[in-house]
Amino acid sequence: MFYKDERLALFIDGSNLYASAKALGFDIDYKLLRQEFMRRGKLVRAFYYTALLENDEYSPIRPLVDWLHYNGFSMVTKPAKEYTDSMGRRKVKGNMDIELAVDAMELAPRVDHIVLFSGDGDFRPLIASLQRQGVRVSVVSTIRSQPPMISDELRRQADNFIELEELRDVIGRPPRDVPSEPRTPPAETD
């Protein structure tokens, strides 16, 4: 459902895509991901959204963020908030939904097709708005994990659902023994 002459933009919810790929048992090769979508259309921009723990001396996600920044991705980051829940567990919160939605709305007049890498149902109104502006929206996530990583409402709203598992051979690399993302839980999303 891609056309060679259409202008594409990728919007990657970093923690959501990481959790989806991890649930399927593979890591994303972002160079291959970018190449795949450049092949499918005229890639205007590839955004990657993630929250960073600024107070840690070393963040395991920092090398990925730096690599993406130097290799053609537009990085959108903000400091994550760390807190302790009622059970005494350390939690990290860094929701990037608003930043992603604002950027998608701003870019909508300049693209034909947006690919959203997230299963977060909070994006359903964003997709509906983009569609009213004439932009086609594909969503990349998975229903093959337990539980599924995409909300049913988001999947129904999208013009096209791309099963992440079916992209494994194109954009995946085998998981490494050393985690490429922080060991702290991914930022909470709804």
From TrEMBL:
GO terms for molecular function: RNA nuclease activity. Residues 171-190 are annotated as: Disordered. Residues 7-165 form the NYN domain. Pfam families: NYN. Transmembrane segments: none annotated. Residues 171-180 have a biased composition (Basic and acidic residues). This is NYN domain-containing protein. It comes from Tritonibacter scottomollicae. The lineage of its organism: Bacteria, Pseudomonadati, Pseudomonadota, Alphaproteobacteria, Rhodobacterales.
